[in-house]
């Protein structure tokens, strides 16, 4: 491979993690010039990598944006090796783009924000893990965050309750609409969120669930991450499409989505859908 000016950004396997078009199908869909080269998208500098994205639309949806964050995470680990003129992972050989490889990257990384030890859960997709991590760091684009970055918005009030300024924590924890959802999750699976006021504390609470049983811990954690994911998606639906999803519908979505992921990705899970709906922790 040359310097990246002849290598297709989306179609060739140049990152060591897989073909980007396949890993990030949503991004590929909104790419303006699908035959662009690596050099056209990646501005490499050791200290500050940046990206020349060209999207077909002005604003990315949540799922697209999470893919972009994941993609940039891979890209910031790439640099052009002077000696051999090839792209390599800074950290050495990583065969597969997976939660496991990302986790080891994370642990060895130099980024100060990663001091927070995020517990990666491979029973839910990477994008859901990423959202959890961003939420803990308060790095979701809430209206308050956008205003800080000088984005013009008519009002910073929460679209769901219209009672408070929309911060990351308001959306995920404090909003009356969100509170109802968390209460339904608690009633469903018996997780105790008493005294937890941040996303980090909720994630910790889920990890305490299974002190006696690893699978239980992982399941509880998956449910909290899926809850977060579902809340964030529904919030965006309200903000961008004006449709408010009632909490009872959200909990149904959380139950079925977490069931699908845990069932498919967690091995030896015996629970069937009927049992899961009633109580997900009958796990042996
Ligand atoms: Zn609210």
Secondary structure: elements and pairs:
Blueprint: H1 20-23, H2 25-30, H3 38-41, E1 42-43, E2 50-51, H4 62-75, E3 78-80, E4 87-89, H5 99-107, H6 126-136, H7 143-148, H8 168-174, H9 176-189, H10 199-208, H11 214-241, H12 247-265, H13 273-278
Antiparallel strand pairs: 1-2, 3-4
The structure holds zinc ion.
What labels would you give this structure?
mainly alpha, two-stranded antiparallel sheet, binds zinc ion
What does this protein structure show overall?
By secondary structure, the chain is mainly alpha-helical. Helices cover 49% and strands 4% of the residues. It contains 13 helices and four strands. The strands form two sheets. The protein has a two-stranded antiparallel ribbon. A two-stranded antiparallel ribbon has the order 3-4. Helix 6 (126-136) packs across helix 11 (214-241) and helix 9 (176-189) crosses helix 12. The longest helix has 28 residues, at 214-241. It binds zinc ion (ZN).
């Amino acid at each position: 491979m040359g310097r990246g000016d002849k290598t297709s950004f989306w179609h060739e396997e140049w990152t060591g993690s897989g073909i980007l078009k396949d890993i990030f199908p949503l991004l590929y869909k909104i790419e303006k010039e699908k035959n662009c080269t690596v050099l056209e998208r990646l501005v490499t500098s050791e200290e500050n990598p940046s990206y020349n994205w060209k999207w077909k639309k002005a604003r990315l949806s949540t799922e697209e944006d999470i893919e972009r964050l994941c993609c940039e995470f891979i890209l910031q680990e790439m640099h052009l090796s002077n000696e051999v003129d090839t792209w390599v992972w800074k950290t050495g050989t990583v065969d597969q783009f997976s939660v496991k490889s990302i986790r080891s990257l994370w642990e060895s990384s130099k980024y100060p924000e990663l001091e927070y030890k995020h517990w990666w859960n491979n029973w839910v997709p990477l994008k859901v893990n990423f959202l959890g991590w961003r939420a803990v760091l308060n790095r979701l684009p809430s209206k308050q965050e956008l205003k800080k970055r000088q984005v013009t918005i008519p009002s910073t009030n929460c679209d769901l309750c219209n009672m408070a300024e929309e911060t990351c924590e308001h959306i995920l924890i404090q909003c009356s609409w969100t509170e109802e959802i968390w209460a339904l999750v608690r009633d469903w699976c018996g997780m105790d969120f008493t005294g937890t006021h941040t996303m980090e504390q909720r994630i910790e609470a889920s990890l305490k669930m299974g002190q006696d049983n690893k699978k239980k811990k992982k399941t509880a954690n998956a449910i909290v991450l899926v809850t977060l994911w579902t809340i964030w998606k529904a919030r965006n639906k309200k903000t961008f499409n004006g449709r408010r999803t009632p909490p009872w519908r959200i909990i149904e979505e959380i139950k079925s989505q977490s069931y699908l992921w845990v069932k498919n990705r967690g091995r030896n899970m015996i629970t069937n859908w009927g049992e899961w709906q009633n109580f997900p922790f009958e796990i042996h």
